[in-house]
Design brief:
single chain, alpha+beta, Glutaredoxin, 4-stranded mixed beta sheet, 4 strands, binds FE2/S2 (inorganic) cluster
Length: 102
């Protein structure tokens, strides 16, 4: 298996019992995963993997995701435009400061 160059962990708000209960799920962040997958494919970013996670503990900044290996935390991702802006930066190997959780 070839390891991905980057890995996006998108918060799906899962709690210990498996139920999504947090802000990222309620704010529609999880619904963007299909768009995120399609955009990665359209952009030829085949070396980027996506995984859904439990609560990332930054609920007040959600919907949230983390990009590794940079360990960049992004928040306020509520629209396809937000995804586009972040992926634009990733393609340039840059961090999009407009969404960074610091
Ligand atoms: S539910 Fe996403 S950070 Fe807590």
């Amino acid at each position: 298996m070839e390891k991905p160059a980057k890995h996006i962990f998108l918060c799906a708000s899962f709690r210990a019992n498996g139920t999504p209960q947090g802000i990222c799920d309620k704010s529609g962040g999880v619904e963007l995963i299909q768009y995120l997958q399609e955009e990665l494919q359209d952009r030829g970013m085949d070396d980027v993997m996506i995984s859904l996670t439990s609560c990332l503990k930054v609920c007040d900044r959600g919907p949230a995701m983390v990009v590794y290996p940079e360990n960049t935390w992004y928040g306020g991702i509520t629209s396809e435009e937000d995804i586009d802006n972040i992926l634009d930066s990733m393609e340039e190997n840059e961090v999009n400061e407009d969404y960074v959780i610091s």
